[in-house]
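Hey, I'm writing a tutorial for new members on how sequence and structure tokens pair up, and I'd like a real worked example in the thread rather than a made-up one. If someone can provide the structure for the chain below, I'll link this post from the tutorial.
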Amino acid sequence: ATLLSHGEAALSWLKRCGVEAKHAQVLPTNGNTSAMTVALMTAAKPGDLVVSEDLTHHTLKALCSYLELGLRGLETDEEGIVPDAFDSACRSHKVRALFVMPTGLNPQATTMGLARRHALIEIARRHDVTIVEDDAWGPIQPRRPPPIFALAPERTFYFTSLTKPLLPGLRYGWLVSPETLV
């Protein structure tokens, strides 16, 4: 009964974030770094290339190094990753995963618009790239576009936690996986 109530609470929080998921898709984690690790380990294998914003999550470089993944930063503008930069990287290399922080990208605090999200998803689908979405701020920004997971659930790992929105010392979060990768 305890695990069921935790699962219901997770689904409720995720719904506030704009994510509709099934219990089986949700993995409780020790915060976003744990979720990021599991998502990258599932999306890519040693030697694969991950691309991200040119200035991204502070632990991504060390984590990719530890997991023996290549990492390449992509050009960004006021909305995040420039679609042409992502497409060019996919055409010139075998990109396995796109790591993205579409809402509240540090340190610029940028938010990716809906059209930009759709453009990146279309490129990811065309080149069969898995998307790893970090939504560290959860539902704090009330009028934000839907998460990428909501637009492309078949290829997106989505994670969020209670750390930034509620309590900095509380390391509890969730990783939502595409149904085919549960």
